[in-house]
UniProtKB/TrEMBL annotation, chain A:
Localization per record: Membrane
Role played: Catalyzes the conversion of phosphatidic acid (PA) to CDP-diacylglycerol (CDP-DAG), an essential intermediate in the synthesis of phosphatidylglycerol, cardiolipin and phosphatidylinositol.
Enzyme Commission code(s) on record: 2.7.7.41
One example of a Gene Ontology biological process annotation: CDP-diacylglycerol biosynthetic process
InterPro entries xref list: PC_trans, PC_Trfase_euk
Stated name of the protein: Phosphatidate cytidylyltransferase
GO cellular component: membrane
TrEMBL record, chain B:
GO cellular component, one term: endoplasmic reticulum membrane
Amino acid composition bias (Basic and acidic residues), ranges on this chain: 21-55
Primary localization class, coarse: membrane
Stated family: Belongs to the CDS family.
Keyword Transmembrane: yes
GO MF entry, a single one: phosphatidate cytidylyltransferase activity
EC main group: transferase
Gene: CDS1
Protein role: Catalyzes the conversion of phosphatidic acid (PA) to CDP-diacylglycerol (CDP-DAG), an essential intermediate in the synthesis of phosphatidylglycerol, cardiolipin and phosphatidylinositol.
Protein name: Phosphatidate cytidylyltransferase
Membrane topology according to the record: Multi-pass membrane protein
Residue segments, region Disordered: 1-68
Length: 422, 464
C-alpha cells in the first residue's frame, strides 16, 4: 500500500476516499499518459457537457421567469421535492435500509404534511381574498394548522406502531434523518417562496449573486489561485474567494439597478378578484424609486461627482451580495463535509456533469434564510390586509379601543381633521 | 453481514458496493480497494455507528445511583421492591408539592420552571448522544451544543416577549433593540455557530461530527420548540397549562392502577407492562378528572386570565374580565343522557367541553409519546434517560408524554380559541404606511357603524 503512494506522490492521501484515489492514480499513471489523447478528449467532453447543461439551465430559468411568479413557485416546489428525494436516498444507502417497512411511505407522507402546513401559512397570508371565494379552500386554510398537525400525528403514531424489534436504532436514525432533511429543504424552500411573493427581485438578485459568486470565484481561482482556503475543499483558494467577493458585489449592484426599473420584478404578487388572476402591478415603494445621495468625501476624489442617484434597493443589494460571497460558501463547505463524511462523490446523478440538484443548490439555502430574515427585520412592515383581517375578528370592545387609538394617532399626524364628537 | 464487516474491516464492503453503484468509473476492483484497508481502519472506530442490527451494539453504562442517604437509611429495613415503591411515592409527593408551590408563586415562576426543565431535558438527551457516539473528545462540540441552545432560546423568547410584553419592552431602551431585531440577531448568532461547526470539522471524524450536529438539532427541535409552546399556553391563561399537564399525569397514574388491578391483555410490544384494560380505564378516568378539574379551576381569575403587564404598577398581573369560555352557560341535556341524569338543563363552563377534547387527546395519543421514548431507550440500550430523580429516572422520563400534549394544546388554542392579540394588532397598525392606516380606519369605521357600536357621523368632515 505504501509503495502505491510512493509511486503516485501527487495523489492525496485521503483515507477512505478510495474512488478518488483510484481515479487520481489512473490519471497520473505514466502508462495512461501514453493514452492521453482519449484522456484529454474525455476531459474536454466533460467540460462541454457541463457548459451545455449550464446554458440549458440558465435558459430554462429565464423562460420560467418570463412565465411569472406562479410558475417560479412551482419550480421551487419541484426543486424542493427533488432535493428531499436525493437526501433521503442517501440516507437509505448509508443505512442500507431499503427493506424497512413503511419507511418510504412515511417519509413522503411527512413531506406532504409539512408542505401543507407551510402552504397554509403562506396562502392564508397572501391570498386571503382568493381564499374567500372558495368554500372548501376556506375550511382547509382556516384550520390548516390543526389539520396538518392531526395528519402529522397520524404519521407519528404509524411510526411508533411500525417499530420492529431488531431494527429500533435504524428506524430512529431514519426518522431523525427524515426530520432533519425536512427542516433543511422544506422550511427554506418556503422562505424562498415568501421572498418571491415579496417581489421577484428579492428572489432573483440573491440567487444570481450566489451563482455569480460560484462562477467568478472559480474563474479567479483558475487564473490567479495560489493559497488554499480550507482543508475541506482543496480546490478553493483565497484569491478566488476575494475576487469572487468583489465581482459579486459589483454584479449585484448592477443587477439591482437593471431590475429595479420594472414593476414586473419589483411589485409583490397580488390577487385581483375583479379579473380573477394574480398580478404584479403596484406603485413601487420608496425602495425602488431613484433617490439622490451625496457622495461621501472618500469617493468624491475618485468619481468626481457630487451626488449620485441610486435606488435605495441597490444599497440593500450590497448587503445581500456580501452575504452571498462571504457566508454562502459555508453552505458549500457544509455539503462538502457531508459528502466526505458519507463517502459520496455527488448527491445524485440527475444533471449530467453537475451531479444532483442538491449539488447546485447547497449554497442557496443559507442565502434564502438570510434574505427572509433581512426582509422581515428591516424591510417589510406588516401586511395591511392581514392586519385588517385580524382586526375584524376581534371582540367589539377591542375594536372600539383600537378605533379610538388609531383615530387619535391619525389626527395627531394631520391625516384626519379633528371632529367634534367621538 | 457480520462476516463481511469483520473481513473487510467495517463499512468498506458496502461502501465499495455503494461506490460501484455510483458508476463513476472507479471500477469495482476489490483487490485495489482492500489494500487501502489500513487507511480506513481509523474510520472503522465509528463503523458500528451505522450497524443495522441492535444486537451488536454495546450497552450504554448507566450512571450512578443518586438516592439521598437519609431515604436509604429510613428504608433499610424493607425489601428491595417495597423500598423502590416508597422512594417513588415520596418523590412523587415531593414533586407535586413543589409544583403547587410554584403555581402559588405565579406565572413568571412557572415560566422559569419550564425553562429549567427544558435545559435539563436538553442536557440529558445530549449526554445520551455523547455516550452513544463516544464523542467526549470531539473539539468544540459541547460548547457548540450549548451555544445553539442559547440562540434558539433567544429567538423564541424574542418572539414571545415581543408579542405579550410590548408595553414592558417600550420602557427599556436596550431591550427594545434586542427585541425588535431579535430575528436578525439570533440568526446572525446561529450562523456564527454554523460557521464554527464547519471550521471545526476534523478529517477523521466527519461522520461523527455530522451525527452530533444532527442530534443536537433534533433535540433542539423537540425540547426547545415545545417548551416555548408550553410557555405560550401558560401566557394564554394558567388553566391552559394546568389542565393538560394534570390530565397527562392523571392518565399515567390511573392507567397504571387499572392495569395493576384488572390488567390482562397486553397493549403494544414496545411496552410490555401496558395493558388494554389500563388504557381504557385510564381514558375514562382522565376525561372525568379533566371535566372536574376544569370546573374547579374555571372559577378563579388567577387561573383563567392571560398574563398582562400593567405599566402603572410595573408588574405582571392576571386580572381580567373572564371571557365567555369561563362563564357558566346553560345547555340542554341531549335526550340520551336525559333518562340517566333526569335533568333538563345543565349549567357548565364552555371550557369544560374543551377539556373533554384535551383529556381525550391526553389519554389516547399522549401515550404514543411514551411509546416513542420507550422505543428510543430500547434502540440505544439505556434503561432511563438519566438518574436525576431517584426512583423515577431522568426529567425526560417524566415528561415524555407531555410533549405531544403541549403542541396539541397550542394548535388547539390557535385554531379554535384565541383570536389575534389586540395589542399586537395595534402595534402592527401603527407601523403601517399612513395611506394604509387611513384605508383601515375607513373600513373599521364602516364596520363598527354597521354593527351599531358607533353612531354615524353626519357632519363629520373627517377625511381630507
Amino acid at each position: 500500500m505504501d509503495s502505491f503512494n510512493l509511486y503516485f506522490p501527487s495523489c492525496p492521501r485521503m483515507s477512505g476516499q478510495f474512488s478518488w484515489i483510484i481515479s487520481c492514480r489512473i490519471m497520473s499513471s505514466p502508462i495512461i499518459l501514453k493514452f492521453s489523447l482519449p484522456n484529454l478528449f474525455s476531459r474536454w467532453k466533460n467540460w462541454w457537457i457541463r457548459g451545455i447543461l449550464t446554458l440549458t439551465m440558465i435558459s430554462l430559468f429565464f423562460l420560467i421567469i418570463y412565465m411569472g411568479s406562479f410558475m417560479l413557485m412551482l419550480l421551487v416546489l419541484g426543486i424542493q421535492v427533488k432535493c428531499f428525494h436525493e437526501i433521503i436516498t442517501i440516507g437509505y444507502r448509508v443505512y442500507r435500509s431499503y427493506e424497512l417497512p413503511w419507511f418510504r411511505t412515511l417519509s413522503w407522507y411527512f413531506l406532504l404534511c409539512v408542505n401543507y402546513f407551510f402552504y397554509g401559512e403562506t396562502v392564508a397570508d397572501y391570498f386571503a381574498t382568493f381564499v374567500q371565494r372558495e368554500e372548501q379552500l376556506q375550511f382547509l386554510i382556516r384550520y390548516h394548522r390543526f389539520i396538518s398537525f392531526a395528519l402529522y400525528l397520524a404519521g407519528f403514531c404509524m411510526f411508533v406502531l411500525s417499530l420492529v424489534k431488531k431494527h429500533y436504532r435504524l428506524q430512529f436514525y431514519m426518522f431523525a434523518w427524515t426530520h432533519v432533511t425536512l427542516l433543511i429543504t422544506v422550511t427554506q424552500s418556503h422562505l424562498v417562496i415568501q421572498n418571491l411573493f415579496e417581489g421577484m427581485i428579492w428572489f432573483l438578485v440573491p440567487i444570481s449573486s450566489v451563482i455569480c459568486n460560484d462562477i467568478t470565484a472559480y474563474l479567479f481561482g483558475f487564473f490567479f489561485g495560489r493559497t488554499p482556503l480550507i482543508k475541506l475543499s482543496p480546490k478553493k483558494t483565497w484569491e478566488g474567494f476575494i475576487g469572487g467577493f468583489f465581482s459579486t458585489v459589483v454584479f449585484g449592484f448592477i443587477a439591482a439597478y437593471i431590475l429595479a426599473k420594472y414593476q414586473y420584478f419589483v411589485c409583490p404578487i397580488e390577487y385581483r378578484s375583479e379579473i380573477n388572476s394574480f398580478v404584479t402591478e403596484c406603485e413601487p415603494s420608496e425602495l425602488f424609486q431613484l433617490q439622490t445621495y451625496s457622495v461621501p468625501p472618500l469617493l468624491k476624489g475618485v468619481l468626481r461627482w457630487d451626488t449620485v442617484s441610486l435606488y435605495p434597493f441597490q444599497i440593500h443589494s450590497i448587503a445581500l451580495s456580501t452575504f452571498a460571497s462571504l457566508i454562502g460558501p459555508f453552505g458549500g463547505f457544509f455539503a462538502s463535509g457531508f459528502k466526505r463524511a458519507f463517502k459520496i462523490k455527488d448527491f445524485a446523478n440527475t444533471i449530467p456533469g453537475h451531479g444532483g440538484i442538491m449539488d447546485r443548490f447547497d449554497c442557496q439555502y443559507l442565502m434564502a434564510t438570510f434574505v427572509h430574515v433581512y426582509i422581515t427585520s428591516f424591510i417589510r412592515g406588516p401586511n395591511p390586509s392581514k392586519v385588517l383581517q385580524q382586526l375584524l375578528v376581534l371582540q367589539p370592545e377591542q375594536q372600539l379601543n383600537i378605533y379610538k387609538t388609531l383615530k387619535s394617532h391619525l389626527t395627531e399626524k394631520g391625516l384626519l381633521q379633528p371632529s367634534l364628537k367621538l
